[in-house]
Amino acid sequence: MSKPLIFELSRPGRCAAQLPALDVPPAPLPQELVRDDLALPEVGEADLIRHYTGLSQMNYGVDTGFYPLGSCTMKYNPKINEEMARLPGFTRLHPYQDEETVQGALFVMYSLQQFLAEIGGFAGVSLQPAAGAHGELTGVLMMRAYHLDRGEAQRTVILVPDSAHGTNPATTTMSGLQVVKIPSDERGNVDLAALDAALAEHGPRLVGMMLTNPNTLGLFDEHIEAIVARVHQHGGLMYGDGANLNALLGIARPGDLGFDVLHYNLHKTFSTPHGGGGPGSGPVGAAPALVDFLPSPVVGIDPERSEEDEPFFTFVHPSKSIGRVKSFYGHFGVMVRAYTYIRILGAAGLRRVAEHAVLNANYLMSQIRDRYRVPYERVCMHEFVCEGRFEDAPDVHALDIAKRLIDFGFHPPTNYFPLIVREALMIEPTETESKETLDAFAAALRRIADEARSAPDLLHQAPHNTPVRRLDEVRAAKDLILRWQAE
Amino acid sequence: MPYIPHSEADRQAMLEAIGARSIEELFKDVPEGVRFPALKLPPAASEMEIRWELEALAGANFTVADGPCFLGAGAYHHFVPAVVDAVLRRGEFYTAYTPYQPEVSQGTLQAIWEYQSMICELTGMEVSNASHYDGATATAEAVITAINVQRKRRKVVISPRVHPEYRAVVRTYTQGMGLEITGDERLDADLPQVLAHLDGETACLIVQSPNFFGQIEELSAAAEAAHAQKALLVVVSDPIALGLLKPPGAFGADIVVGEGQGLGVGLNYGGPYLGFFATRMEHVRKMAGRLVGQTVDVEGKRGFVLTLSAREQHIRRDKATSNICTNQGLVALAAAVYMAALGRCGMRQVAGLCYHRAHYAADQIDGLDGYAVLRDRPFFTEFVVRCPRPVAEINEELLDGWGIIGGYDLGRDYPHLRDHMLLCVTEMNPREEIDMLVEALEEVSA
C-alpha cells in the first residue's frame, strides 16, 4: 500500500487549526474580487500529525544513520543549534524594526561576519546569500563589477575546471559570462599546461577562475600557488567554491592562498541542517579589493551611536555594491545556528573538525581501496572518489552499488559525479562519524563487491526493504504528474 | 571534543591503517607558508555558556510579542500553529539532504509534491516548483523564465508598486544579461502609465497584487495589455490574501510568484523565508528549480521522484535554466503543513480576519484629525496613511510611549510619499490592539 496523500485524507468540514472569532464589524467585500473555492485538504489535527510523522518515517537523515554524500558534508547537526535558533527573542523579530530594538540580533550577525572573515582570511563578509549557488552568483557578479569598475568591459571569460560542481558553469552563464573549461591532469590537479593555453588565448578577456579546493575528487591542488599566480598575472580574480571548506578549517585560509572571493556553505561546513533541500546559507567573503562590491547591506558599527564597551550595530551599504541579492538580510535563523557552532568549537575545535574529517576519509579509503579502484593514488582530504565498477562484473554499475548500500542501512554516496571519473562514487564521511560506523560501512562495501560477482541480481534489484523500490524516472518525466487533481 | 567521537586509540589505529604517523602529515599538499594559521576567535564555550550568551542576546531585542506590531511591507506577523514546528523538528526531515535517492526520501518527496499541489490550488496555476529562496529571488527567476520563453525579447516592464527590494533583486540578478528594465522610473506612475511601456520587445510585465501598498491591482487590465503584446504576465502575490481573493491564474497570469513566509514560517528577522513559483504547463521546461513528479516503482506502487532535472545545473551545467540547487525544502514543508492544518475553511478565515480588521483600523484612523487613508484602490490587509508628522518621529513615540511597533515609512523608497505610513493589520492584532493604536496615533498627531 502506498502512503495516502493528504488530499485523500480530506473530509469536508474538518480543520486542524482554531482561530478567534471576528471582533470587529465586517467590512464590505467586493464579490468580484473573492474566489469561489479553495480546494485545500480538510483534516483533523491528529490525522495531520500522523500523516507527516508517517512521511518522516519514509525519510533517511543524518539523525537516522550514516550519510556519506560526497560534497554535501552531511555532518551531525547539533541540537543546541536548533534550540538557539528558536529563541523567541530571535524568531519574533520583524526585519524592518528599528535597529535600536534588534541590537542582540545585529550583534550575532556582526560577530558571524567577523568569524567567517577570520576563518576564510578575508577583509569583509556578506551574510545575504541564501545558499551556495546564490553565493556563487553573488561572487561572480562582484568579479564582473570589479572589472567594469576598472573600465575593462571586455573581460567576459570565466575558467572552470572539468571537475567543478554544475553550479559553477550555470552561475557563469547566469552572470552573462562565458565558460572556458579546463581539464584535470593525471594527478587530479588543474592541468597547468591547459591553463596556460587558456590564459594565452583568453587572458585579456579573463574575469577569473572558479576553483573548488580541495576539488570534487577530494584532492588539494598541488599547484594552487601557481594557478593563483597565473590567473592574477592575467588580471583575473580567483573565485573559491567553499563547498569543501570543511577540509580547511584551521588548516589553511582561502584568502591566504590567494582567493579573492569565496562562498561559505553554512549548511555544510558549519553544521546547520540541510532540511531536505534547504534552507541553506551561502555567505560571501571578499579580499580588500572586492569588499566594496559586496551585496548591500552588511552589518557595521556606527561610531556616533556607540558608547565605550557598547558598540551600536547598524546596516551599512558598500560603496560599489552589486546591489541586493535577496530581500532583507539573509537566512538569519541559519546564522544563529552557525554562530552557536563556531562559539562552541572555537579555533582549536574548528581545526580538529578538519583534521578528523580528513582522517576519517583517508581511513575509509584505506579500508576499501583494494576492492574499489581509486583513480588518483594520493592522500585525500575530506572526501574521496572511487569507481563503482568491476572488470569481471560488467553489468554492475555505481547506481546498483548505491542502491544495495540502502539494504545495509546506509545512505548512498554521491554517484556519477564528478563527471571525470567513470561510474563515480564520491564518499564524504565527515568528522562526526565513529570508527565503528566507518568499519561497518566499509564492510558493507566489501560485501557488495563480492556480491557483484556472486549474486549481481541482489544489486540490480536493490533496494529491497524500502517503502518503495526503484522508481520509474523515465515515466515520471514523460507522463508529468506534478500535482494532485480531484478525480 | 565537541561532536567528534574519536578516542586516542581510534586515532592511532586509523593512522596506522592509513600508513601515516600523524594527522598533520595528511596535510602535506597544503603550502607550508599558510598551513595551520592561528585563528583569532573567541575562546570555545560549553553548551550551557553559549545558551546563556544567546539567551541574553535574544532577550536584548524588543520583539513583536513585547508589543502590538503593525509592520508588514513584505514580512508578516501571522499565527503559526504548533503542529508546524512539531513536524519540522522531525530529524528525518530536517537532517536529510535534497532527495536525490528517492527510495529513502519518499517523506520529503511526497510532502513537496503535496506542497506543489496546494500552491497550484492557491494561485490558480497548473504547475509549481519546490521553492525559491524568497519572494524577491522568485521574482527574479520569473524574469529569467520569461526571457527563456520569449527568446528574442529583452525588455521587462515592472510596476513601481512591486516591493522595492524585489525590484532591486531583479536588477541585481539580471545585471549581466543585457536587459532593459523599465516602468518604475516614475515611482508615482499608475497602472495605465506602466502598461504604456509594453511593446513588441517586452518579454514580461511584472505587477504585484496586493501591491506593496496593500492594494488589489486590476489584474485583468494588466493581463489584457501584456497579452496584446504577447508578453507574459508575472504576478507577485501574497498567499494569505489568496485565501480570500480570486487567484491570479483566474485573470490570465502566466507566472505567479511571491513570498510564502505568511504560510506558517514566522518572522525570523527576515529569513529563512519561502519563494513560491507557479506557472502554466507550457512553460514547465523553461522554469527553474526542483520539481517533484509522481511515478511508480518496479512493483507498480505509487512513488515520487525529482523530475525534469535536465533543466538543472547538475545535468545541463552552463545551459541550465538557473544555477539554483539548495532551495527552501524545510520551509516549503512548513508551508505545506500550515496549508493542510488550516485547510479550505481556515485559510479563508485567516484572510477574512486580516481583511476585516484592517478595514476597521483604516476606518478608525481615517476619522482622526490630521490622518487620511488612501482609498483609491481596494486593499487587503495593508493600507497607506498620510500622517501629520514625519513617520520616523511618530514611530519613535509609538514605541517609547506605547510599546507599539508602528508602520513602514514609505518615504524611504517613495519620495512622493513622504510622511506616509504603510500599516499592516493581521489576525494577530485583536480589536484592543487596534483601538490602542488609534488612540496612540491621535495622541502623537501633534
What is the compact description of this entry?
The complex is a heterodimer of chains A (487) and B (446). Chain A has helices at 45-56, 79-85, 88-91, 103-120, 132-149, 167-174, 192-202, 224-233, 254-257, 332-368, 398-407, 435-454, 456-460, 473-478; strands spanning 124-126, 157-161, 178-182, 206-211, 237-242, 261-264, 284-286, 298-301, 313-316, 384-387, 414-415, 424-427.
Structure, described:
The complex is a heterodimer of chains A (487) and B (446). Chain A is 35% helix and 10% strand. Chain A is of the alpha/beta class. Chain A has a domain at 80-343: Aspartate Aminotransferase, domain 2. A seven-stranded mixed β-sheet of chain A has the order 1-7-6-5-4-2-3, with helices on both faces. In chain A, strands 10-12-11 form a three-stranded antiparallel β-sheet, covered by helices on one side. Chain A has a two-stranded antiparallel ribbon with strand order 8-9. In chain A, a hairpin with an 8-residue loop joins β11 (414-415) and β12 (424-427). The radius of gyration of chain A is 25 Å and the shape is globular. The model of chain A has no long low-confidence stretch (mean pLDDT 97). Chain B has 446 residues and is α/β, with parallel strands linked by helices. Chain B folds into two domains: 82-338, Type I PLP-dependent aspartate aminotransferase-like (Major domain) (Aspartate Aminotransferase, domain 2, 3-Layer(aba) Sandwich), CATH 3.40.640.10; 343-443, Aspartate Aminotransferase, domain 1, CATH 3.90.1150.10. Chain B has helices at 8-18, 47-59, 82-88, 91-94, 106-123, 135-149, 164-173, 191-195, 219-228, 313-316, 329-366, 391-402, 431-443; strands at 127-128, 155-158, 180-182, 202-208, 232-237, 255-259, 275-279, 292-296, 302-306, 372-373, 382-386, 408-409, 420-424. In chain B, strands 1-7-6-5-4-2-3 form a seven-stranded mixed β-sheet, sandwiched between helices. In chain B, α6 (135-149) crosses α7 (164-173) and α12 crosses α13 (431-443). The model of chain B has no long low-confidence stretch (mean pLDDT 97). The interface between A and B is large, with 202 and 206 residues.
